[in-house]
Amino acid sequence: MVYRSKRGEALTWRKGSRSQSASDCVEVAADGPAVLVRDSRAPAAGMLTLDSAEWRALLRAVRNGELDGR
């Protein structure tokens, strides 16, 4: 679940509970209907903006191990 940021306020960036102490994670934030994804090690490097269908596809790919790269 991505918690929605309040309109007019700074984005609420979150990372997975299993990644809280690690520095090699992604962070997500909701901005209206979009989900933003960024590298936690380089937050100023930019972000991906995903619509709801793209977000669901990404989650499905992660859960299915399609992005493991092993």
TrEMBL record:
Domain of life: Bacteria
Domain called DUF397: residue spans: 11-63
Pfam families xrefs: DUF397
The protein's name in its UniProt record: DUF397 domain-containing protein
Organism: Actinomadura napierensis
